[in-house]
Amino acid sequence: MIKRALFGLLGAVALSTALGQAQASDDRKVILGTNNWAENVAVANMWKLLLDTRGYDVELKSIGKSVLFAGLATRDIDVTLELWLPTTDAPFLAPYDDDIEVHDIWYRGTGLGLVVPSYVDIDSIADLKGREDEFAYKGRPTVLGIDAGSAIAALTDDAIDRYELDMKQVNSSEPAMMSALSDAYSRQAPMLVTLWNPHWAFAQYDLKYLKDPEGVYGDNEDIYWMSRLAFGEDFPKITQVLNAWEMSDEELATLMAGIESRGDPVEGAQAWIDEHPAQIERWLTAGGL
Questions:
Q1: Among 109, 144, 156, 179, which one has the highest count of C-beta atoms within 10 angstroms of its own C-beta?
Q2: What's the pTM value of the predicted model, to 2 decimals?
């Protein structure tokens, strides 16, 4: 009887310990929603590495941009790191305004619009009219863009209509678009793409935005991070750290370029972390991590 009671007690203690460990693990679990934009992949992998080393269990969940907002509102996603305001992502945020918390800016002064290599002798979207045939892709005048559900794709359709251009937008993935741009650049051929900064392409190629006199693409914006409601209460240290986080155009460009050159987001992000210990320490110290 004594042995049986002792075994029962030990079993209860073991079960209690296991449940406690599971609860502790759950309390450190963070679902970080990502999309396929180069800067999003870069900073998401950087923060996963940093938070994992501080005892958190960060899972990256790659989904479409519009789904990110719904996921935050339904609490299926804890946090995502890219919200362009006041214009680009406002339509995505509006339906969930009461169910998502917008936090601090981490990147200031974005760019967004139609981009050509600098050797192209056109400087304005308005100047494309009548010269559309020069920008043929697979036999037809084309603006080569990214996925159809992105904000920049919708703005580009608006630009084609506003400037009355006789061309179509072909939507593809960002890697496919960049591959086509790289091929055209190597041949010094005209190419018209949708791009934004921050982006590693501006460090690798000599590119220029076409002026937008109609203001279709809006003014420069800032990038915020956002979370589900109550994330700040559940993860106060992470919230303080991310609110203290800021990156310059050069810093973000070197992070993205490192990932692009290595062909591996984890390896590239880790290399950047290793090269910027003082900056990393400032961010983490802000949250007591």
A1: 156
A2: 0.74
- Give 117-169 pLDDT, tens digit per residue: 999 999 999 999 999 999 999 999 999 999 888 889 999 999 999 999 999 99
Q: How far apart are CA 49 and CA 150, in angstroms?
A: 27
